[in-house]
Amino acid sequence: MIGNRSIDRWGRNVTQHAALHPAALIFAALLILFSILPVTGAEIGAPIPPESFSADYYKVYGTPNLTASLDMSRIYQGEATVLTMTLTNRGRITSFEINEEPAANKREEILAAQRELELEKQRTVAQDVSVLLRPENESAIDIKRSVAFPGNIREGQTSPRLEFPLEAFENALPGSYQLAALVNYTYQKDVAVKEDDDRPENPDVYYWYDSLSQTIPIDLIVERRSGAQFEVLNVTPTSLRPGSEGNVVRIRVKNVGDDRATDLVARLRPESGLYVSVDESPISSLEPQEEAELLYKLDVSKDALPGKNYQLRILFQFSDSRRDDLTDWENAYLRIEEGGREWALAILLFLALLAAVLILAVRRRKKA
Questions:
Q1: Residue 171's pLDDT is what?
Q2: In the beta sheet, which residues pair with residue 60?
Q3: Considering 37, 67, 105, 296, which has the largest number of Cβ atoms within 10 A of its Cβ?
């Protein structure tokens, strides 16, 4: 036992043992380990490999390489669906080197080398795979569940179907949108097998794992559900008075798409404060680039706010050359006139003036 001799306050000889706290022992062990196994800057944060494996017979090159494919790559505006993805591992062993040849007269080395060569084939297996799917344009595409865990994917193997519920917003413009699949996994970077004279069939095996990340771009096409597309050209009149009733409103629309709309019914859904008495305007057919006028009757609440633009949503139900029971919508706007209160005030002033004139007339007659 290691210790130091000292005299206590009563004059006795005392041996002070060099006892270390368990944490200090662990720290000292780590210092020794790091001095034996130096780490380069490139490997900081990764599992620490030995400088050179003992009895590392082969050096193999190659990594996993994952690609993504979709069951479908098109979605309609306003549609909520499930995007189904599969990952395929197209990784392969690119080359290998012989670090050390087993001695021909040593059975334990021959068995260890054979075991290592077999284990080195697992280098291209992507292990503990995770996928994070995110859209480049979050204002157009909303991914409801963005993470999936397909597990391990061997070379040449395809993962189970990964499902990502998502939605293209109603106002997403038709066109191509890019998604990014962020894929993370680990793989076996190296393996060594150390022979054992006492048990040649069961040698010691040492593994070194590393992690990899891939970003896989995915194109998603957002389409209109129909080739017919409607645009509001104008609204007549452009404004209405508060409290007015039976107003005939004409809304002119145009088919700016490339397909004919048939059996078209345009229903009006105004903002609160406007009330529609005739809310349907049917049109038998509207060709591409053709215009039509929709007619509605509106009442305006007396509490409608002067100067405010009230929204008129037009719901289109129609068929085109490919599909029936299609729907679409567009917005138009009506302004509430600000002169309603001034007009009422003018009437009150006129009535007050008229009353004053009558009072003066009555007084003059009495004097006469």
A1: 84
A2: 96
A3: 296
Torsion angle of C-alpha atoms 291, 292, 294, 295, degrees rounded to 10 = 130
**pLDDT attached to residue 363:** 73
Q: Which two tokens stand for residue 56?
A: 């590392």
pTM: 0.55
Report CA dihedral (20, 24, 29, 32) to the nearest 10 degrees.
Answer: -100
Taking 70 as the pLDDT cut, the residues of the chain under it are 1-55, 57, 103, 339-348, 366-368
What's the chain's length in residues? 368
Q: Which residue has the tokens 């130091």?
A: 4
Two tokens at 199? 């048990």
